[in-house]
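Deliverable D2.4 — example input (C-alpha cells):
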C-alpha cells in the first residue's frame, strides 16, 4: 500500500489526504490507475475538494486536477491584482466558482471581466457606481461590483452592456439628470459611449435652460422641453423633436435680428445634432 501511495503522489500531485488514500486503495484493488481515478472522481470526497469539476452528464471531469487548481489560483491572483486579498477572494468565489467552471470562463476571460469592471465602474465616477449598484442589484463595494461583473449566468457581452449603460446613467446623474435603466440601455444600444454621454448631458445643461427660456417668452402654454425630448433629437434624430428645436432656435434668432437690435448666431443645438 505504501508503494501505491508513493506512486499516487507522483501521478496525481494535486490529490491530497483522503483522496490520495482512496486513489491508492482503488489502484491497489484494480491494478489500473485509470480505473482508480475514475472511481475516485465520482466520490463525494472528490466533489467536495473539486466542486463542479465532475460532469455527471458526461461522466468526465472538465479539467484535470492540476489545471483545475491552476485555474482557481489564476482567478484568485487576478482579484489580488485589484486589491482583493486571497482569503476574501476565496469567500467571494465560493458560490461563483462552480458556475464559472460550468460556463467555461477561462482565466483570460475572467481577467477581462475583472479589468472591465474595475476600469468601467470601480475606478469611475461615483454616479456610474451608483447606477450599476441600483439598477443591477449589486452592493456598492468593489468586491460586490467585481462579483456582479463575474456572474457566470450572464454572458460577457451582457456584462459589457451593463457597464456601458451604467456609465451613461452616471454621466447623466453627474449633470443633474435621471435616467431609468431602460433609457440608459437604449442609449447604449444606439452606440453612445461614456464620453459621448458626457458631451450630450453637458450640452443639455447648457441648452435646455436656453430653449425653455425661449418657450417661456412665447407664453404659448407649450410644455417645456424635457431631457427625454432633447435626447430624442440629439441622439435618435427624431424628426418631430428636431423640428421643434429648430423652430425655437429660429425664433430666438429673430429676436436678435437687426429689427430687434444685436444679431445673434443661432442653430446651436441643431448644429450639435448635425455635427
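Example output (designed residues):
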Amino acid at each position: 500500500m505504501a508503494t501505491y501511495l508513493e506512486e499516487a503522489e507522483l501521478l496525481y500531485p494535486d490529490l491530497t489526504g483522503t483522496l490520495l488514500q482512496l486513489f491508492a486503495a482503488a489502484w491497489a484493488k484494480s491494478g489500473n490507475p485509470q480505473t482508480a481515478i475514475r472511481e475516485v472522481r465520482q466520490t463525494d470526497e472528490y466533489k467536495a475538494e473539486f466542486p463542479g469539476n465532475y460532469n455527471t452528464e458526461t461522466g468526465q471531469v472538465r479539467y484535470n486536477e492540476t489545471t483545475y487548481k491552476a485555474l482557481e489560483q489564476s482567478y484568485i491572483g487576478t482579484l489580488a491584482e485589484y486589491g482583493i486579498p486571497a482569503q476574501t477572494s476565496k469567500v467571494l468565489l465560493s458560490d461563483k466558482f462552480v458556475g464559472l467552471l460550468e460556463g467555461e470562463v477561462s482565466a483570460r476571460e475572467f481577467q477581462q471581466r475583472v479589468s472591465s469592471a474595475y476600469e468601467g465602474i470601480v475606478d469611475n465616477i461615483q454616479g456610474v457606481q451608483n447606477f450599476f449598484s441600483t439598477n443591477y442589484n449589486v452592493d456598492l463595494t468593489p468586491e460586490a461590483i467585481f462579483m456582479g461583473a463575474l456572474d457566470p449566468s450572464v454572458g460577457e457581452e451582457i456584462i459589457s452592456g451593463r457597464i456601458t449603460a451604467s456609465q451613461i446613467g452616471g454621466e447623466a446623474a453627474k449633470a443633474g439628470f435621471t435616467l431609468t435603466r431602460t433609457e440608459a440601455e437604449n442609449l447604449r444600444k444606439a452606440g453612445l459611449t461614456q464620453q459621448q454621454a458626457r458631451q450630450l448631458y453637458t450640452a443639455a445643461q447648457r441648452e435646455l435652460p436656453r430653449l425653455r427660456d425661449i418657450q417661456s417668452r412665447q407664453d404659448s402654454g407649450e410644455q417645456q422641453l424635457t431631457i427625454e425630448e432633447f435626447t430624442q433629437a440629439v441622439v435618435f434624430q427624431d424628426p418631430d423633436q428636431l423640428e421643434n428645436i429648430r423652430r425655437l432656435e429660429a425664433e430666438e434668432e429673430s429676436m436678435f435680428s437687426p429689427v430687434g437690435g444685436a444679431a445673434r448666431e443661432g442653430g446651436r443645438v441643431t448644429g450639435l445634432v448635425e455635427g
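The radius of gyration is 30 Å.
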